[in-house]
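Dear colleague,

Thank you for sharing your sequence with our group. We've completed the structure prediction you requested, and as agreed, I am returning the results in plain text so they can be pasted directly into your records. Please verify that the sequence below matches your submission; if there's any discrepancy, let me know and we will rerun it promptly.
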Amino acid sequence: MPDYQEIYANHADRYEALVSHEDHEGHLSRALAEVAPGTGLRVVETGAGTGRLTRLFAPRSSRVDAFDGSAAMMAVARATFAAMPHVQCGVALHQALPVPDASADVGVEGWAFGHALSWNAAGWQADVRAWVAELERVVRPGGVLVLIETMGTGVEAPFEGGHSLEPFHAFVLDALGFSHRALRTDYAFASVDEAAQTLGFFFGERLAERVRAHQWRVVPECTGLYWRAR
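Please find the predicted structure tokens below.
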């Protein structure tokens, strides 16, 4: 299994190269416009990485405060959004976002909270509760909380063949009261070799072998979109 903490700390450019190929048909962008509609939004994002979700919210927001625990990831994001003064990027942890109470229309995380299951196997539910509570703190009444997590890469259906985030999915729906939608966010590459190398770096050689075996230039992926009104 790849060391994701090491990737986030030391390979932000390669991570950016990966996510730039994701969701080539734009399903996630359209779904976000449905669950968090409108323009002139004030958005607070945690686990922003290099800005894969920030890009989707920035065009219809008056301000985006994007945070990540990795300084390296935030450095890439700052460079990306340097010409957008309404997007501010900073280093912060999920449980301590440096923004006032009830200051956002949308509080969002993407592909970040799910790491709790492997990084804190005994206490992941408490972690997720605390992180969701912090998002709830910064979102105004009438706003929306949005969580986005993987349901499998290299699969045609959510959790096909089993997945480590199935408990997260059940917890967010049953214990935290989020609504849910499953989306296809397939990756598209110029060649099978590029797909195998890029995805193998982040997901491991087993997926790279699967990509080569299927001769996938477009690699299937399923993503869970979760939302709850404040």
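Summary note from our side: Residues 124-138 form the longest helix (15 residues).

Kind regards,
the structure core
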